[in-house]
Design a protein that fits this description.
- With about 550 residues, this protein is α/β, with parallel strands linked by helices.
- The protein contains 14 helices and 18 strands.
- The chain has helices spanning about 20-35, 70-85, 110-120, 145-150, 170-185, 235-240, 320-335, 395-410, 445-455, 460-470, 485-495, 500-505, 520-530, 535-550; strands spanning about 10-20, 40, 55-60, 90-100, 140, 160-170, 190, 195-200, 205-215, 220-230, 255-260, 270-275, 290-295, 300-310, 345-355, 370-375, 385, 555.
- The strands form two sheets. Strands 3, 4, 5, 6, 11, 12, 13, 14, 15 and 18 form a ten-stranded mixed sheet that branches.
- It is globular.
Length: about 550
């Protein structure tokens, strides 16, 4: 994948997508596979915001039973299975457990019934899924087994636990980049750091976009028969350029926060509840509690998700120290044995998610379903907005949006069903961390090889090609990490990384646990600078900007 913003203005596209989060990328992938001419522009780096700040889980919707929302459960179960089939190197089953107490809604009997219903509704949860990635049935366990999983759990009233399986995305950024690469390989033209500044309109009809390259300052027009607005929290900014639609609002933001901490438990994701006065107006069963999970992720734990109200511009979004303190206090209440303090928090992942609009102080109630909206009645025929709510169903929302696009472009045609195929990297022959019929190049450690295969799948061979050309790229950037220099060069030459933070936060996992250290930043800047022709002054500036983002260890972007 090569960044070529000039290509955006060379053609008249069937569809221009605004926004390079997971929803925009999935839409570009879907459109390109359907044979549409398609371009995508992202104002910052791809998946540089909310899309990279999730809890990294793909869930089949067990919690939707309290809403009796069987349609949403079935959608989530199907989409989870698609990810297991198309990206098995990145998506794998993960056991979840919630302790059970007493005889009420948190009892063993209620959870046994819920797990049974979950298995029945998800009867095809592993259809076509490879061995080693299939979803086992749920089960209830006794007091001693749950205490073995959660040491120091308060045993007062404890009756056992409920265990079920969902999935974890080992690296959300690499999964998004796999979708992006598949889109480009199918003909999409994509560019990061290009901002859509307005709509091209004539007589109430969208003709494309006004755009600006944020790296060079160049402005240009992008001509397209239709525009899909998938800009997340910035979606309303584009809508406000429609004449007479200044008050049009499709995204009511709320803060979402996940903490990266030292590893707390074993290999299960643990569910804990916190008492709350919040009542979900859509739920048939309101338990008076808020649920969060402690999820094992690499050598860390991810804890979340905490939702907080937000008023303001998405550019001004911040996770504050007060926000972190509130969440840590709740975690301490629910799980005092964890004994978490602020210094145990290695990084904070934050973004903006759409909530049901409310006035005054309130607990956040998230929008439940993704939405696709046609703006023809608002003076912008040819403009569609897609507002997503979770990673799991991004592909499905893209499919829904493209069905509408094709209906407008080709009203006499029936929307096409595409044959499923693996994403780049997803056709790895085996899933045990070994590369068949091929030896690792000299100098690449077993840990580095395992890391490459788990993050790149079969495309690890392409990364290793850089090592064969230059063996020095096979050594780890720092002793404490399996990340090698070839990943940096690959990210620049093949994945459009333009700034140091693109590599540190998204093309590699250097910042997964917070600051990787000054030596890692220096080596990254040297490798990127040698490819992109950076001066020493530019290298130092890139290190400084990345240090500023790493210093508080808070990811504060949103898209």
């Amino acid at each position: 994948m090569k960044r070529d913003p000039a290509a955006l203005s060379r053609s008249v596209y069937d569809l221009a997508v605004v926004g390079g989060g997971i929803y925009g990328i999935c839409a570009a992938h879907e459109a390109a596979r359907r044979g549409l001419t398609i371009c995508l522009m992202e104002r910052a780096d791809f998946v540089s915001a909310t899309s990279s700040s999730s809890l990294k889980t793909v869930h089949g919707g067990l919690r939707y039973l309290q809403h009796a929302d069987l349609r949403r459960m079935r959608e989530s179960i199907r989409e989870r299975a698609i990810l297991l089939r198309t990206a098995p190197h990145l998506v794998r089953p993960l056991p979840f457990v919630i302790p059970t107490y007493g005889s009420g809604l948190r009892s063993k009997a209620v959870m046994r019934t819920a797990l049974f219903l979950n298995d029945v509704i998800g009867f095809d949860r592993s259809a076509g899924v490879r061995e080693g990635r299939r979803i086992p049935p749920g089960r209830v366990i006794g007091r001693e087994e749950v205490r073995a999983i959660i040491p120091d759990l308060d045993a007062r009233g404890l009756t056992g636990g409920a265990v079920w399986y969902d999935c974890q995305i080992a690296n959300t950024e690499r999964l998004a980049l796999a979708y992006l690469r598949a889109a480009v390989e199918s003909g999409a033209v994509c560019a990061n750091y290009v901002e859509a500044t307005g709509l091209l309109l004539r007589d109430g009809r969208v003709l494309g976009l006004q755009a600006r390259d944020r790296l060079t300052g160049d402005s240009f027009d992008v001509q397209a028969r239709m525009v899909l607005n998938a800009a997340g929290p910035w979606a309303d900014r584009l809508l406000q350029t429609i004449p007479g639609a200044r008050d049009l609002k499709r995204f009511h933001p709320s803060k979402a926060m996940n903490l990266v901490t030292r590893r707390l438990f074993g290999d299960h994701a643990i569910g804990f509840t916190v008492p709350t006065e919040f009542r979900d107006s859509d739920a048939l069963l309101n338990k008076g509690t808020r649920l969060f999970f402690v999820v094992p992720w690499k050598q860390f734990s991810l804890i979340g998700t905490r939702h907080l109200p937000y008023q303001g511009d998405p550019d001004d979004f911040r996770i504050t120290e007060d926000d972190i303190a509130v969440f840590l206090g709740e975690i301490q209440t629910a799980c005092p044995s964890a004994a978490l303090s602020r210094r145990d928090v290695l990084a904070v992942l934050g973004g903006l998610l759409p909530e049901v609009p409310r006035s005054g102080p309130h607990e956040v109630q998230l929008v439940k379903h993704s939405r696709v909206h046609d703006h023809a009645s608002e003076g912008a025929a040819g403009l569609i907005s897609a507002v997503g709510v979770k990673w799991t169903t991004a592909r499905l929302t893209a499919e829904e949006a493209l069905n509408l696009v094709e209906l407008r472009l080709r009203p006499s045609d029936t929307p096409r069903r595409l044959r499923e195929r693996p994403l780049p990297g997803g056709d790895l022959e085996v899933l045990d961390g070994s590369l068949p019929r091929e030896q690792a190049p000299a100098g690449v450690s077993p840990d580095a090889m395992r890391h490459l295969l788990e993050n790149y799948g079969s495309t690890a061979r392409e990364v290793l090609g850089y090592v064969r050309a230059d063996p020095s790229l096979g050594t780890e950037l720092v002793a404490s990490s399996p990340i090698i220099g070839a990943e940096v060069v690959f990210g620049v030459e093949r994945e459009m990384a333009q700034q140091l933070e693109d590599v540190v936060f998204r093309r590699t996992e250097l910042a997964a646990g917070g600051h990787p250290g000054p030596e890692a930043l220096r080596r990254c800047a040297e490798l990127m600078g040698s490819v992109l022709g950076w001066s020493q002054e530019r290298r130092e500036a890139e290190i400084g900007r990345t240090e500023a983002k790493l210093r508080p260890s808070v990811a504060v972007t949103s898209s």
